[in-house]
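re: ur question from yesterday

yeah so i grabbed the chain u mentioned. its 140 aa long if i counted rite. heres the sequnce exactly as i have it in my notes:
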Amino acid sequence: MDIRNCRQCGGIYVYDNFNICPKCRKQEEEDFQKVKKYLYENPDANISEVSEETGVETKKIISFLKQGRLEIKDEDNAILTCERCGKSIRTGRFCKKCVADMDREFKKAIGGGKDPSELQNSDAREKMRIKERYRNGKSS
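ran it thru and got these structure tokens back, copy pasting raw so excuse formatting
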């Protein structure tokens, strides 16, 4: 068993591929649902209003945006910017151009930009498959 401390509450839990304990995950999901419901009913609300009305910290709401769980309505905003180029984005951590650039750079670094089936080295081929699974949101 892999025992760890929760990054949020500091409590001890059996690690299950999450950096926070089940209790904190449950609370985070409840907070997310509050924010989501409020935004559904008030689509033009700003982040301060959402925080005030739901009781969820602005830091946590920004985290939901960076995780891609929420999206900002306005293209030009001062809340969320690409962590690579600084361009204003609506959700996630990177703009579409930077994601495409990084994808190309990763492929080049791992396998010379080639299709995994064309690679002779089985390690490079496996790395490319893992990267594609991760990119597509699949864990197995």
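noticed a couple things. The radius of gyration is 19 Å. also The chain has a mean pLDDT of 86.
anyway ttyl
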